[in-house]
Amino acid sequence: MHGMINRAIQCFMRDTYGGATWQAVAESADLGFDNFEAMLSYPDQLTIDVLGRAARQLHKPVETFLEDLGTYLVSHPNVEAIRRLLRFGGENFTEFLFSLNDLEGRAKLALPDLEMPTLRVEDNGDGTFRLSCLSSMPGFGYAMVGVMRAMADDYGALVFLEHQGWMDSGEEIITINLLEAAYAEGRAFELSERIGGEP
């Protein structure tokens, strides 16, 4: 697993629950080190072990932990770059949803060796959308539920999300019911960041 995934889990634990909680997880997983390196690769089983131990440390199901991780990746100030990457996908939540079909390719431009999940969004034509997610990390779809929930809030949309489970092909299916596209005022977003406070 790419080190960025492991690093994200570490940062989520540290930023949300404190350094001591992360340290306890690292020790229980017998990592032999305190910090994941973002540009290294680690065995997939190590990532799975860390996820399981982190969930147990917090007394949460792994699915809930992954959903919270997905929300963190979009909403926490320390990972603003991920939110910006996703917000470039469109001016409203519907445009953002369809931009997920190209996310894997866009991410590869920045990090060619990062194994991104394959995402596919389909419009069911009744106000609902079907998101299929194929990833080497078991349960990544639950993290996507957290991402979708945070992005809906970011755009001010009201949605109902449901993880439908796995298909025989290994894809996880998420149903997205867009109840209201402009339910509330979304978070401010500018295409270009200001440098040094200059407008």
Automatic annotation (TrEMBL):
GO terms for molecular function: heme binding. Signal peptide: none annotated. Gene3D superfamilies: H-NOX domain. Residues 2-157 form the Heme NO-binding domain. InterPro entries: H-NOX_domain_sf, Heme_NO-bd, NO_sig/Golgi_transp_ligand-bd. It comes from the Bacteria. SUPFAM superfamilies: Ligand-binding domain in the NO signalling and Golgi transport. This is Heme NO-binding protein.
